[in-house]
Fold:
Amino acid sequence: MRRDIQFHSEGSLIQGHLYLPEAIPQDSKLPCVILCHGFAGVKELLLPKFAQAFSEKGFTALTFDYRGFGASGGEKGRLVWREQVQDIRNAITFAGTLDEVDGAKIALWGTSYGGANVIEAASQDDRVKCLVVQISFGDGERVITGGQTPEQKEKLKAMLEKAWQREVAKGRPMMLPIEQILTDPQSKQFFKDNVQEFPCLDSKLSMLFIKHTLEYHPEDRLPQLHIPILILGAEKDETNPIAETHSLFSKANEPKRLHIIKGAGHYEVYKGTFFEEAFAEELGWLQKHL
Structure:
């Protein structure tokens, strides 16, 4: 069972979906999993299968569009992780107002860029009792520039400096089509396969998204977190290489668990046997710790 929900986040109206079990005992409150999507994603893409599956196992599951994306309000093309983290924290607050939700049992589930966001959110918010971090990264600079030469890094730095100056001095952000931002083959193919069904993917982002991501180091937050965390990676991930998963796990505190899906690429954990494997791990973790 799914119903539309909405809440406010720093002046933007956020649109979402709440997934519920078909039958809920009267006056009962259920644990809640808040699912946070990845780079430029929307709640209708990739998340519903996980959210529906969690609801069928007795959880409430909440999905939403970050400000500026999908059906939510806010400035289009603006992807700033600090703002998305605030959207997540406001989603936690909203979940606590729902009759069906036990506000003392809230978990964050984040995939790809959303995995980094849920680490950051949990480091700021002690209402989060459990984490699931799926195919994410620990250091944005390492992911973006890891394969670059020193000359390429300097060129990127200079280009971003000019974009920053233009936005500050003239109020005109330098925009790039999402398709041009994607660099790895798996992401390029995913975009090609889904842009017709989800035309919102065919949009532009401020170039400063790259600057913000270079400054994003969610793995540095892990030593201060002391809640259960499941870190799941895909062996053949070309978007967030498997080394990022191992780096996250190495910096996390107990209780923690690492699970690598053998043979899976970045976008394959959402379907078929790879989905079933990922979901079984995540369900077991949440049932144990939430």
The chain has a mean pLDDT of 96. The first strand starts at residue 2 and ends at 9. Residues 150-170 form the longest helix (21 residues). The CA atoms of residues 4 and 246 lie 37 Å apart.
